[in-house]
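WARN no homologs supplied; continuing
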Amino acid sequence: MKRIDLFSIEPNAYKALVPLETYVQGSALTKTHKELIKIRASQMNGCAFCLDMHTKDAMKFGETPQRIFLLNAWREADIFTEEEKVILALTEQITLVNNGGLSDELYDKAISTFGENYMAQIIIACVAINSWNRIAISTNKPIAK
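OK structure emitted
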């Protein structure tokens, strides 16, 4: 079913989100960290549009297909670093905020791993992709063919 093109009928909504994405792109987060956050949140939210875009972007930045394929099972895969595992856990808890939010234990581990500034940037990256996921899913945004 065709749905509204949110960005055509409410361009100011799009314009309001762009600075958040611009901030994430200019942050100190590595390209790998950004794309892992975007892919994992998009997997959890079931956003085909964002998964298509960000898996392609990740591979352009040097991510391997194997790591992308195993991202949904990152806890069992030994190909992710400890830092990446903390980021993926953060992404999951922030995305599923209704399940109790970000635990004190994970928060403390993330602060000790990354420091406050990098942690703040991870949180904002999670917020941004969850916003984009919700828009793409709500409007049935088609994937590029």
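Helices lie at 6-9, 11-26, 31-45, 48-60, 65-70, 82-95, 104-114, 116-138.
OK
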